[in-house]
Design brief:
Structural class: alpha+beta
Order of helices and strands: HEEHEEHEEEEHEEHEEEEHHHHHHH
Number of strands: 14
Number of helices: 12
Radius of gyration: 25 Å
């Protein structure tokens, strides 16, 4: 109930999210963007008179254009961009406005904004404000290129060239089975979207049950892929670290994290493990089927198994936390040693245009 109330309140107050400037880096051949006349290095300004300087503004502008019912058939939407310091007016058919962003890649550089706890980049020693300048020896300037290249080789050791300050160093990182390493770009811009009370109630309930579903999907993955236990089970140390990261991102992120922890505890507590509430419910179901309760000796036997399981889980989570911290410290020590012995980087090579 706490999580549900928190999620509804978040939508009432307004949802904050990371935003990016709508600066074009690449235009896909044959896309709507190319037919409209967009070019690399264009900076979007307005769409149909509405602001479109960020991705969230562009999304709202395209949604508003799609909802207009009284527009004359065949009339085009005005798209204004800045190109080489001059303002250029383009036009786009209303039916194609919603697909405008699909053919574009945005100018997001490969600076590291957040390093997610427990992922390969964290264990390798990557820090916020590092810049990834090459992947397997090939220069990389855009976040979209970096993400695409990483996902092309999941569960593979990749060599990143990292620039930190005025020095560079190589960093070997093994991608996850999904082809990620656990980093995100800097959140230089933010947006806030507010909702009506009825929308906040609906979205709050939907979001709560979505999180519950994702938690149980994650728990089931431990059964189908036990190796994930080593990298994903976390204890109090990790929870405190993540809470600190969320607090740095603002009160809304911290409250949302508290909501997630509450739902995770509920999900665990309802598992059919003796000694937990889910175990008592399981015993009650068995009693309902058998028309008589299990013997006290049998119940005590299963409760001891459940107790040993929980104690083992606590010990395992503490071990994971300590191992993760030690691995991070070893990686940082190796990087610091390399930085002290290396010469300053060629900034013309590592910063790009």
């Amino acid at each position: 109930m706490f999580a549900l109330l928190v999620n509804i309140s978040v939508y009432l107050v307004g949802v904050e999210g990371a935003d990016l400037a709508a600066n074009v880096s690449k235009v896909a051949p044959g896309s709507v963007a190319e037919r409209v006349g967009l070019m690399p290095l264009d900076r979007l300004l307005t769409l149909d008179g509405r602001p479109a300087e960020t991705l969230s503004q562009l999304g709202l502008a395209t949604e508003a254009a799609a909802e207009q019912k009284d527009r004359k058939e065949g009339s085009a939407l005005a798209l204004r961009v800045e190109r080489g310091g001059a303002v250029v007016d383009l036009s786009i058919p209303p039916a194609e406005a919603k697909d405008l962003g699909e053919g574009l890649e945005w100018d997001v550089r490969t600076d590291v904004g957040r390093v997610l706890l427990g992922f390969p980049a964290y264990e390798a020693g990557l820090r916020e404000r590092d810049r990834i300048v090459a992947l397997d020896g090939r220069p990389v300037l855009l976040w979209s290129d970096l993400s695409t290249d990483l996902k092309s080789k999941p569960d593979t050791i990749r060599t990143l060239t990292i620039r930190r300050g005025d020095r560079t160093f190589p960093l070997r990182v093994k991608t996850t089975p999904e082809g990620t390493i656990g980093i995100s770009p800097p959140e230089t811009l933010t947006y806030r979207q507010t909702f009506r009370p009825d929308e906040a109630l609906l979205y709050g309930v939907q979001h709560t049950f979505y999180i519950i579903k994702q938690i149980y999907v994650g728990l089931w993955s431990f059964v189908t892929d036990p190796v994930r236990l080593r990298t994903t089970v976390a204890g109090p140390i990790a929870i405190a670290q993540v809470a600190s990261q969320q607090a740095a991102g603002g009160i809304q992120q911290l409250v949302a994290f508290a909501s997630f922890i509450s739902l995770a505890l509920m999900a665990m507590n309802l598992l059919p493990i003796p000694i937990l509430d889910g175990g008592h419910i399981f015993f009650a179901v068995i009693e309902g089927v058998r028309r008589r309760p299990l013997s006290l000796k049998t119940q005590l036997f299963f409760q001891r198994i459940g107790l040993f399981f929980l104690i083992g889980l606590v010990v395992f989570s503490f071990y994971n936390d300590v191992s993760r911290v030690q691995q991070r410290r070893r990686a940082e020590a190796d990087i610091d040693k390399h930085l002290r012995s290396s010469a300053p980087a060629d900034t013309a090579l590592t910063t790009g245009p």
